[in-house]
Amino acid sequence: MGIIHLLDQQTANSIAAGEVVERPSSVVKELVENALDAGATTITVEIAGGGILSIAVIDNGRGMASEDTLMAFSRHATSKIIRIEDLDTIGTLGFRGEALASIAAVAKVTLRSRQQGTAMGDEVRIEGGQLMHQGPAGCPEGTSIQVEQLFFNTPARFKFLKKDSTEAAAIAETVERLILSRPDVSFRLLTNGQELLHSPGNNDLLSAIYAVYGRKQAAACIPISGQSSPLQISGYIARPEGAKNNRSGQTVLVNGRWIRSRTVTAAIDEAYKSRLMKGRFAFTAIRIDLPPELVDVNVHPQKLEVRFWKDGEVFSAVYQTIVSALNDHAGILPSDSAENEDSREAPPVVVTKIVKDENLSVSDRTGSEYARNTFNEPDKQSLEYHNYVRPYEHHDGTIPIEFSSSESSLPIKEPVAAPQQVREQIELHNVNHSAALMKASELVEARLIGTLFNTYIMLELGDELIMVDQHAAHEKIIYERLRDAYRDAKHRRTQPLLIPMTLTVAPSELILLEAEQAFFEAIGFTLEPFGSNALIIRTIPDLQSARIDPESALRAALQSLIKAHPADHQAVNELLYQVACKAAVKAHDHLSALEIHQLIADLAPLENPYTCPHGRPVIIRMPRLELEKKFKRVL
Ligand code: ADP
Ligand code: MG
């Protein structure tokens, strides 16, 4: 007798739910995406108990016809595509018709919906896939869905849920991503009755960034824009000072969808590479728009990844756009920027303070951080459905459904700051910043004060004290000149040695050097083996005013070559940098005034004179005001 049979619908739906509904935040994502697909402009998400106990999503979208409310819960029931080809031109976030069926299979769901322009709405209640109730209902236009007791009938899945505050934080993060991807929609997130996020929906990405990350982060942003047909790149990135300790500040939107992309992440990292210290990550909100047929959105169960038609094109478009924006906005770092970096990641203010202090808005913290750190919700173990007395429970064991969108007891506050005001504030800050932006080229005008500790060149320019790390500066000049020579033969200049130098090396090193002849020639060294343990240097790179120590440079190159082959771009960069570092003047070398002027003149026209290839600052400045504060001349 055969043993294969078709699964019943409830079992099939529960299995499918495993893919779509991983945790409360995935429910929020699916429901909000549905609201967006229904054209909503205002979406409220209200959760209790980390979303495990209850999630309500209320929208003002077009609503559903009463014939559709039940149908919406069937598996593979969708209004968004008809056949597979439609996926090539998909304009909606959903398309699989799985979400509602999956959610209803593992929770208790109440849907109320009223189509725009109709008199009456419809209500459907489904518990664990079983229809409990359907009938007309008085409700506002739009749709509200409440999902309660997630995984009440799948204890194994329930056990994998994290603490309420962790689940709440994941939900906040989901809503943050939605806010960033749809600045034209006003989102509100309430958790246990408290407003955590509220975006203005004024179709301005910068205001959305403000709503999610707060004022300081928004103020560190610069706009980006680039075109490389068929790609359009836009959005905002933070100057290097606005970097974070992790990738949580990296938003990538492809055709309005928040996604993760290795290609784009790599392009971001590469563009910021010499501007950030190790362990720091760029803050970005990048929009990539391209014709829908050039991107496959159906490659991930939660639609968090996409496949581009050509990764290389996307990489270089993103890279170029970021680099050019960073170059435009690069300047001498203020001396306190290092401290700012750390205070930015300080622990969040406590909840009581936020509630009491009118001036301290939730938006000074990001919602997800805030949720993770400040909610003293009961742990979900205490919500275990078997023994937990639910606060909302009636005597008869049913839970009254109360959506708070229209009949809310909470007054709806305006988003944290009036949108226009937000923009103006931020623009003002950016204008101030660019006025205050000091370019290295201005330094040729500066007055030389002297050298401090034989290490830092001190200059006075306008109302600023400028300090240049002489070793870092020299290193950067040599690095860029060597790199230019390596990239393009027309920048290559060699200098013959009147008396060729002989260098003693180990036979193994000699083999290495011979194998990499091409590299050394590209940067200007002409080397010849001399016996089995020596070589002759006939020419060295001519770096004009920047003199180098050829022996140290070669020994440094050898050291690097032993570790890595200059086959890839990364390794060549590091190799050039090692050579530059060893060939440059040491920190404690005494430089004459003439040499200092030459160094500053050489530094000024570099592509990036501000940071070394590892992201450490080369030049910093301290405004007069800061000194005056230290001397208490001003307070
Ligand atoms: P999908 O979004 O992939 O189509 P879902 O299971 O998420 O699948 O939803 C099924 C259908 O229910 C949708 O295609 C849509 O027609 C309808 N629907 C779901 N949520 C809403 C909503 N908030 N407003 C209007 N219609 C909705
Ligand atoms: Mg959907």
Key features?
binds adenosine-5'-diphosphate, 21% strand, 635 residues, elongated, alpha+beta, eight-stranded mixed beta sheet, binds magnesium ion, 21 helices
Summarize the model shown.
The strands form 5 sheets. Strands 5-4-3-6-2-1-7-8 form an 8-stranded mixed sheet. Helix 1 (9-20) crosses helix 4 and helix 9 packs parallel to helix 10 (311-329). With 635 residues, it is of the alpha+beta class.
Protein described:
Helices cover 36% and strands 21% of the residues. With 635 residues, it is an alpha+beta fold. The strands form five sheets. It has an eight-stranded mixed beta sheet with strand order 5-4-3-6-2-1-7-8. The chain has a five-stranded mixed beta sheet with strand order 9-10-13-11-12, sandwiched between helices. Strand 9 and strand 10 form a beta hairpin. Helix 6 (164-181) packs antiparallel against helix 13 (367-374), helix 9 (262-272) runs parallel beside helix 10 (311-329) and helix 18 runs antiparallel to helix 19 (569-583). The longest helix has 19 residues, at 311-329. It is elongated and about 95 Å long. Mean pLDDT is 82; it is low at 338-363 and 386-413. Adenosine-5'-diphosphate is lined by residues 30, 34-35, 38, 59, 61, 63-64, 72, 77-80, 94-101, 143.
